[in-house]
Specification:
alpha+beta; Creatine Amidinohydrolase, Chain A, domain 1; Creatine Amidinohydrolase; 3 domains; six-stranded mixed sheet; 19 helices; 28 strands; 21% strand
C-alpha cells in the first residue's frame, strides 16, 4: 500500500467510527523511549522513520510534527505524500492540538488509542479540546483495522539477572514495594513501565532495541503478584523461578480484562506519566485511583551496594573500549577515510571485546564538525560526513553490560583548532568540573545544582538548551527518573545511590558542538552540625582531550580535579591495556600545572 492508500483506509475507518481527527503519537502502551516494530504505526501511516514525531489525520488534511533533528529527513520522506511537515520550535508553527482546533468545528470528536497515550497527556489534551467544545475519545481502537501486515509483538525469551549482579532478591523487592503500598494506603499497584517490571523481577529481555526489557504488565496487591506476558517468553526455568516467588503469569492480552474485574472498592495506585489512559478506562468506576510517582521509579533509582560496584566495574570496561577507540582515531585520522558511521561501528567493535557486553545502550551520536551543533544528531547514509584532521569530533555513546549501563560523551580534537573552539571546550570543562566537585546538603534538588554547570558559560553569554543530567538505569534504560539536573524543578531530591549524567555543552549552529559527559554517583560526604552532606563520585573512566584545553582558563581547584581524575583512571585502566595503549594513555593523562 502507498501512503495515500494507507491514509484512505484510515479515513474510511475514522468515518465509520465518527472520528473527525485521529492523533498518532510515537509511543507504545508502556510509554517507552524506544519501540518495537509492532508499535510503529506512525511510521507505517506516514513513511517518516524518525524516532520522534506526531501525525494527525483529518478527513481532508494530515500533518507531522517533529523537531529539528529530523527536519531534512522528514522533508525527504514526506515529499511523495500529502502530509504537511510542521517544524516544532519554528516561529508561527502551531502545536498539533491548536492545529486540530483550527481544522474542526465545535462538537467534533478527536480520537486516539488510549493505550498509546499517558494518563497525564490525556488529561492535558482533554482540557484543551473541552475549552473549544471538542471531545477527546481515548477508547477507540483503529490500528488493527487498517494496518495490513502489522508486525507481531516480539516473542524473545527473557533471562534472569543473578542476584550477584542485582544485589537484592525478587522476594525482598516485592516486600519493599508492599511496604510503600501500605504507606500510600493502596490495595493495588499497576505497573506499565517495562524497565520497572524488569527491575522488580530481576529479569531482562531483548524486545526493545538498546533497552534490555520485555513487553509485560504487572498488578501487585498485598497478597498477589500478577504478571501479564506472552508465555513464549517464559522458559521452564524462568517459570519455576516465578512460581517459587509466587508470581502468577497471565496472558498479555487479558491485562485490561483483569483490571475490569478488580474489586469494586479497590484503591489503585498509578503513575500518570508512565501509565496509559486505557488503564484508567478499564478500572471499575467504583474504585479509587491514587496518582503519584511510581513506587518502583524511586526504588530502582537508589542503587544498592552491589549495583554501585557493578557500575564501577562496567565503566572500567567501557573506559578500556573508549581508550582503544580514541587511540585508534588519533593514529588513523587523515591516513584512511573515516566517516561518522564507520567511527561509530569501530567504537562498538571495541566495546564488543569486553566481557559481559550485551549491546549498545542507545544509538551512538557520532558527529563531526557542524553536525555536532545538533545535540541529538543521528548520522544517516545521507548525512554521513567524513572526518578530517581538523576541528572537533563528538561521540556520545554507551554500552549495556551484565554489571550495568554506561553513557559517555567525549569531544576530541582531530587537528588544528580555532581559539573559539578551545575557549568553548574549556568553558564546558569548567562547568563539568564545577558540578563534579559539588558538595550539597540533604534535600538538595537537581534544579539547585544546575547553575554549577552553566555559570562559567553564562559569564560569556553562552547557554545550552538541554538538561544537564538525567538518571541512568542498571542494565536498564539509559534514561530514567526520577531525578534530573535541569533548570526545571521536578521536585525530586538528589539521594545517596542515585547515578546521574553530568553533561554540559555548547552548540553553535554551522560551527561546532561540544559536550563532555561523565556519570556521577551521589555519595554521603559528611555529617556536620548542619546536617548530612552529599557529594559526587565520578564513575566514568575516560581521558578528557588535553589538546583542546586552555589551561590558563582553569583555576587551581579545577586543575587539581582534572589531575586527580586522570590519575585515577590511568590507575584503573592501565592494567587492562597493552604497552602501546598504556603509553598512549599516560601521555593523555599527564598532569597540568
Amino acid at each position: 500500500m502507498t501512503i495515500t492508500d494507507r491514509l484512505f483506509s484510515l479515513r474510511g475507518q475514522m468515518a465509520v467510527m465518527g472520528i473527525d481527527a485521529f492523533i498518532i503519537p510515537s509511543t507504545d502502551p508502556h510509554m517507552s523511549e524506544y519501540l518495537a516494530e509492532h508499535w510503529l504505526f506512525r511510521k507505517w501511516i506516514s513513511g517518516f522513520t524518525g524516532s520522534a514525531g506526531t501525525v494527525v489525520v483529518t478527513a481532508d488534511s494530515a500533518g507531522l510534527w517533529t523537531d529539528s533533528r529530523y527536519f531534512i529527513q522528514a522533508e525527504q520522506e514526506l515529499k511523495e505524500s500529502e502530509i504537511e511537515l510542521f517544524k516544532i520550535g519554528y516561529p508561527n508553527t502551531p502545536s498539533h492540538p491548536k492545529w486540530i482546533i483550527s481544522k474542526l468545528q465545535a462538537g467534533s470528536v478527536v480520537g486516539i488509542e488510549g493505550q498509546n497515550l499517558s494518563v497525564e497527556e490525556a488529561g492535558k489534551l482533554a482540557k484543551i479540546f473541552k475549552q473549544n467544545d471538542i471531545k477527546l475519545d481515548t477508547r477507540v481502537q483503529i490500528q488493527n483495522q487498517v494496518w495490513e501486515g502489522r508486525p507481531p509483538i516480539p516473542e524473545d525469551e527473557v533471562f534472569q539477572l543473578d542476584t550477584k549482579y542485582s544485589g537484592v532478591s525478587l522476594a525482598d523487592k516485592i516486600a519493599k514495594v508492599r511496604r510503600e503500598m501500605k504507606r500510600f494506603s493502596t490495595t493495588h499497584y499497576v505497573i506499565c513501565g517495562l524497565d520497572e517490571i524488569a527491575w522488580l523481577l530481576n529479569l531482562r529481555g531483548s524486545d526493545v532495541e538498546y533497552n534490555p526489557v520485555f513487553y509485560s504488565y504487572m498488578v501487585i496487591s498485598q497478597n498477589s503478584v500478577n504478571m501479564f506476558i506472552d508465555p513464549h517468553k517464559i522458559t521452564s526455568d524462568i517459570g519455576k523461578y516465578l512460581a517459587l516467588n509466587d508470581v502468577k503469569v497471565f496472558l498479555y492480552e487479558i491485562f485490561f480484562e483483569y483490571l475490569q474485574e478488580l474489586p469494586q472498592l479497590s484503591t489503585v495506585y498509578i503513575d500518570p506519566a508512565r501509565t496509559n489512559s486505557a488503564v484508567v478506562n478499564a478500572i471499575p468506576v467504583t474504585a479509587k485511583i491514587s496518582r503519584g510517582l511510581s513506587i518502583i521509579t524511586h526504588l530502582k533509582s537508589i542503587k544498592n551496594s552491589v549495583e554501585r560496584e557493578g557500575m564501577r566495574i562496567c565503566h572500567i570496561k567501557d573506559g578500556v573500549a573508549m581508550v582503544k577507540f580514541l587511540r585508534w582515531l588519533e593514529s588513523t585520522i587523515g591516513k584512511v577515510e573515516i566517516t561518522e558511521l564507520s567511527a561509530a561501528a569501530k567504537l562498538q567493535s571495541f566495546r564488543a571485546e569486553q566481557e559481559n557486553y550485551l549491546g549498545d545502550s542507545f544509538h551512538t551520536v557520532s558527529a563531526y564538525g557542524k553536525n555536532a551543533a545538533l545535540p541529538h544528531y543521528s548520522a544517516s547514509e545521507e548525512s554521513n560526513t567524513t572526518l578530517q584532521a581538523k576541528s572537533f569530533y563528538l561521540v556520545d555513546s554507551g554500552g549495556q553490560y551484565l554489571e550495568g549501563t554506561t553513557d559517555i560523551t567525549r569531544t576530541v580534537s582531530l587537528g588544528e583548532l580555532t581559539e573559539e573552539e578551545i575557549r568553548d571546550f574549556t568553558l564546558v570543562l569548567k562547568g563539568h568540573i564545577n558540578l563534579s566537585q559539588a558538595r550539597f546538603p540533604q534535600g538538595t534538588r537537581g534544579v539547585h545544582l544546575d547553575i554549577l554547570a552553566r555559570n562559567a558559560m553564562w559569564q560569556h553569554g553562552i547557554n545550552y538548551g538541554h538538561g544537564t543530567g538525567h538518571g541512568v538505569g542498571y542494565l536498564l534504560n539509559v534514561h530514567e527518573g526520577p531525578q534530573s539536573i535541569s533548570p526545571q524543578d521536578n521536585g525530586i531530591e538528589m539521594e545517596e545511590g542515585m547515578i546521574t549524567s553530568n553533561e554540559p555543552g555548547i552548540y553553535k549552529s554551522e560551527r561546532h558542538g561540544i559536550r563532555t559527559e561523565n556519570l556521577i554517583l551521589t555519595v554521603k560526604d559528611c555529617e556536620t552540625e548542619f546536617g548530612t552532606f552529599y557529594a559526587f563520585e565520578t564513575i566514568t573512566m575516560c581521558p578528557i582531550d588535553m589538546k583542546a584545553i586552555d589551561t590558563k582558563m582553569l583555576n587551581s581547584d579545577e586543575k587539581d580535579w582534572l589531575n586527580r581524575y586522570h590519575s585515577t583512571l590511568f590507575e584503573k585502566l592501565s592494567k587492562y591495556l597493552n604497552d602501546d595503549e598504556k603509553k598512549w594513555l599516560k601521555n593523555q593523562t599527564n598532569a597540568v600545572e
